[in-house]
């Protein structure tokens, strides 16, 4: 990232500028102690006077009424609140006419902020009071009262909590009267500005101790800056929460959400008292102490995929470079670039009006289509299509520009979706709900309809990050979830915990391999689906190495091919290479090339590769390959069990025992019962010591009750125990246990099964000949 700074000297204020606010992406209002409100048009570079305020009105803060809520335009959007030193706030129209003035505080009103849907206004005063007002200016409540001035205030992401300053303290107060407030010492000097982002739920603060800090919503410190030369007078999040701006005396910084600085500029502005981002996040404006309004455009963004490197050199120009042959192209756009994404052989670029789709094989002829709503806040790509999020909804497009689907769910807020809460694969869309962060909605990417029975996936804790795997059939689609405890789960129909203390993760783009950073280890799960076939295999499929090279709090950006890209906390990129063999093994497994898979494992002589092959073979019911793989990793008991499965007379029994191997007892039972193999079902439960279920099935089907009782009796005798189960005592009274008869019955059942299997085989053979 880089900032291009513009100072429009056509018209400047004569006194310090106290506040600024964007009306559209190219129009800004500024207020100053010279009592003037100016309008700045960035398209025409014109500045005009909106209104000259009365001489005793000194403005402090300005905030425009929210333009849209849930994609619907607000009828009242053309007004703004203006706070002033005389203890009043004023509701003013776009023409500058003051519609209403309200006596709010004793002393200056230091801050005024609308909540996200415009239903409430909060003001903070020099008198230490915080008050909530209706949008028409009626007092609803006095939220807080303290002895020191409240210099800054911010709404929580759901407008249900308030963040405000109290000297050196930061305080989060819920609106519910009975809820407990959270407060902590945040700075060594008076705190001057705060901001709370609705997308990433992170808090910014700055103060007279010349530092800015990043906090989570529990008050935990995530980043603290080094000390500046002067107090840090302003901080502001970009709308998407990826970057923030910091203003001080003759200083403007652009920083990543984790705190490190992309760029430091030293414009001649005096102190920057207020910062505001345009709604599309491409432009920044600052209110300066010397009467200027400073404008900054975000450029020099960079995207990488395989051998391609793309840089936004100007607001409407991109530079493409292939690092392999040093070939280059220049991409020109009619309007300024707002968002871009490069993955899966395609570059997707959104401007204020259009979407451009480029193929990595042809940079000259993009596919272009118009956008309903210009401010695209997120682009997510999969191999076959991509997803756009804007103020009105979520849209899935093909790379040919065709609208495929528009998934929706009740209460969906598109303004707070980000890359951690949305994931896309070729057939599935996953979106974490904001109103209940334990809930993940799953949609069919091709229809936009909810998957399965329409019920969302519900985790037991709040979900922090989700990621769908990118390969394989839709029936095997898996979603990886990191929850609030930093536990990593892999989910198909039911959740299985894979690891603990995982801070960041990413799926490979061409194989279902997952990487993550857990505690002090960089870990690659070569075959995470092993948890569904054989949990004991999972630890043997891992590649682990020390993660100290990534420093504290790293973030995985992507995992493409054999290369993992990690962003360290200081902003630098670190690349880590992983073995190409697991991806090759996934490819062989997907195409049923089991002989090639065995050759690869023998060549590589890697235990983790053999473990992966064992899991893949069992998942595909390829018993011969699984037997070789388990033997290679020394799992003798499992080799014997696989051999016993091979000797079973019927296909249904084999399938059931493979399900048992993976721990799916209920599915195994259902398979056997459906095939009419009642005795085999009962025997499975006897072998697992599920005595109650075995007796229940025997009684229900009126067969082999004596078999169950005999095995139960033998079990108790082996352990010198007496029967205490009332059901077994009840049936034992009327049933005589004769081991010879039982053995004969068992032999008869096995003969029946063999005959049935032989008949089925003959029938299928005859059918195939016909």
3D structure, described in words:
This protein is an alpha+beta fold and 770 residues long. The termini are far apart. The mean pLDDT is 89.
Topology readout:
Blueprint: E1 2-7, E2 17-24, E3 27-32, E4 36-41, E5 46-52, E6 59-64, E7 68-69, E8 72-73, E9 79-84, E10 88-93, E11 98-103, E12 109-114, E13 120-125, E14 129-134, E15 139-145, E16 153-155, E17 161-166, E18 169-174, E19 182-185, E20 191-196, E21 203-207, E22 212-215, E23 221-224, E24 234-237, E25 243-248, E26 251-256, E27 261-265, E28 272-277, E29 283-288, E30 293-299, E31 302-305, E32 308-314, E33 317-322, E34 327-332, E35 337-343, E36 346-351, E37 354-359, E38 362-370, E39 378-381, E40 385-389, E41 394-398, E42 403-405, E43 422-424, E44 428-432, E45 439-444, E46 457-458, E47 463-468, E48 479-483, E49 488-491, E50 495-499, E51 502-507, E52 514-518, E53 521-525, H1 530-533, E54 542-546, E55 555-560, E56 563-567, E57 573-577, H2 581-590, H3 594-604, H4 607-619, H5 623-632, H6 636-646, H7 651-661, H8 665-674, H9 678-687, H10 691-701, H11 705-718, H12 726-734, H13 739-769
Antiparallel strand pairs: 1-30, 2-3, 3-4, 4-5, 6-9, 7-8, 9-10, 10-11, 12-13, 13-14, 14-15, 16-17, 17-18, 18-19, 20-21, 21-22, 22-23, 24-25, 25-26, 26-27, 28-29, 29-30, 31-32, 32-33, 33-34, 35-36, 36-37, 37-38, 39-40, 40-41, 41-42, 43-44, 44-45, 45-46, 47-48, 48-49, 49-50, 51-52, 52-53, 53-54, ...
Helix pairs in contact: 2-3, 2-4, 3-4, 4-5, 5-6, 6-7, 7-8, 8-9, 9-10, 10-11
């Amino acid at each position: 990232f880089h900032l291009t700074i513009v100072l429009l000297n056509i018209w400047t204020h004569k006194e310090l500028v106290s506040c600024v606010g964007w009306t559209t992406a190219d129009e800004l209002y500024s207020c100053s102690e010279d009592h003037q409100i100016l309008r700045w048009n960035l398209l025409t570079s014109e500045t005009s006077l909106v209104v000259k305020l009365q001489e005793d009105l000194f403005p402090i803060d300005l905030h425009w009424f929210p333009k849209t809520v849930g994609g619907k335009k607000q009828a009242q959007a053309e007004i703004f609140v203006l706070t002033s030193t005389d203890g009043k706030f004023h509701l003013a129209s776009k023409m500058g006419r003051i519609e209403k003035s309200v006596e709010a505080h004793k002393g200056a009103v230091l801050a005024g902020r609308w909540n996200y849907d415009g239903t409430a206004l909060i003001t903070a005063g020099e008198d230490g009071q915080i008050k909530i007002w209706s949008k028409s200016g009626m007092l609803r409540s006095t939220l807080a009262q303290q002895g020191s001035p409240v210099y800054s205030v911010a709404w929580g992401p759901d407008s249900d909590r308030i963040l405000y300053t109290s000297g050196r303290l930061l305080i989060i107060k819920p609106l519910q009267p009975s809820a407990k407030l959270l407060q902590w010492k945040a700075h060594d000097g008076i705190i001057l500005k705060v901001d709370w982002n609705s997308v990433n739920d992170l808090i910014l603060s700055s103060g007279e101790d010349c530092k800015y800090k990043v906090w989570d919503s529990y008050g935990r410190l995530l980043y603290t800056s080094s000390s500046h030369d002067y107090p840090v007078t302003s901080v502001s999040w970009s709308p998407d929460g990826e970057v923030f701006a910091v203003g001080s005396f003759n200083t403007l910084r652009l920083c990543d959400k984790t705190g490190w600085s992309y760029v430091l500029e030293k414009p001649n502005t005096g102190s920057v008292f207020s910062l505001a981002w345009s709604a599309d996040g491409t432009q920044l404006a600052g209110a300066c102490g010397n009467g200027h309004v400073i404008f900054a455009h975000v450029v020099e963004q960079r995207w990488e995929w395989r051998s391609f490197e793309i840089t936004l050199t100007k607001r409407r120009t991109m530079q493409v470079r292939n690092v392999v042959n040093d070939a280059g192209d220049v991409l020109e756009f009619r309007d300024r670039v707002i968002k871009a994404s490069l993955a899966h052989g395609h570059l997707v670029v959104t401007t204020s009006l259009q979407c451009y789709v480029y193929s990595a094989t042809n940079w000259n002829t993009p596919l272009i289509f118009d956008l309903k709503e210009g401010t695209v806040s997120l682009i997510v790509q999969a191999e076959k299509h991509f997803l756009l999020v804007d103020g009105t909804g979520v849209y899935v497009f093909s790379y040919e520009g065709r609208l495929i689907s528009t998934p929706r769910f009740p209460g969906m807020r598109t303004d707070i979706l980000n890359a951690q809460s949305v994931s896309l694969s070729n057939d599935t869309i996953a979106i974490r709900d904001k109103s209940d962060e334990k809930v993940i909605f799953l949609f069919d990417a091709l229809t936009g309809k909810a998957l399965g029975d329409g019920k969302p996936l519900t985790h037991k804790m709040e979900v922090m990050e989700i990621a769908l795997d990118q390969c394989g059939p839709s029936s095997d689609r898996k979603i990886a979830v990191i929850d609030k405890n930093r536990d990593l789960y892999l989910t198909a129909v039911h959740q299985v915990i894979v690891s603990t203390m995982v801070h960041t993760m990413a799926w490979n783009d061409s194989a279902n391999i997952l990487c993550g950073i857990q505690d002090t280890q960089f870990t690659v799960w070569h075959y995470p689906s092993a948890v569904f076939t054989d949990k004991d295999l999972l630890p043997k499929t891992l590649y682990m190495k020390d993660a100290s090279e990534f420093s504290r709090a790293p973030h995985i950006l992507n995992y493409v091919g054999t290369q993992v890209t990690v962003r360290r906390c200081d902003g630098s990129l670190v690349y880590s290479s992983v073995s190409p063999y697991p991806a090759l093994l996934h490819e062989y497994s997907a195409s049923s090339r089991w002989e090639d898979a065995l050759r690869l494992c023998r060549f590589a002589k890697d235990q983790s590769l053999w473990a992966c092959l064992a899991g893949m073979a069992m998942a595909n019911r390829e018993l011969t390959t699984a037997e070789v793989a388990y033997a290679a990793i020394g799992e003798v008991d499992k080799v014997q069990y696989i051999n016993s499965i091979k000797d079973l007379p019927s296909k249904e029994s084999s399938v059931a025992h493979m399900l048992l191997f993976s721990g799916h007892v209920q599915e195994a039972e259902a398979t056997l019962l459906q095939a009419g193999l009642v005795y085999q079902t009962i025997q499975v439960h006897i072998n697992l010591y599920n005595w109650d279920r075995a007796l229940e099935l025997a009684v229900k089907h009126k067969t082999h009750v004596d078999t169950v009782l005999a095995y139960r009796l033998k079990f108790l005798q082996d352990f010198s125990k007496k029967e205490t189960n009332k059901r077994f005592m009840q049936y034992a009274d009327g049933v005589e246990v004769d081991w010879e008869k039982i053995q004969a019955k068992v032999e008869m059942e096995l003969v029946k099964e063999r005959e049935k299997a032989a008949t089925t085989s003959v029938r299928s053979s005859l059918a195939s000949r016909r």
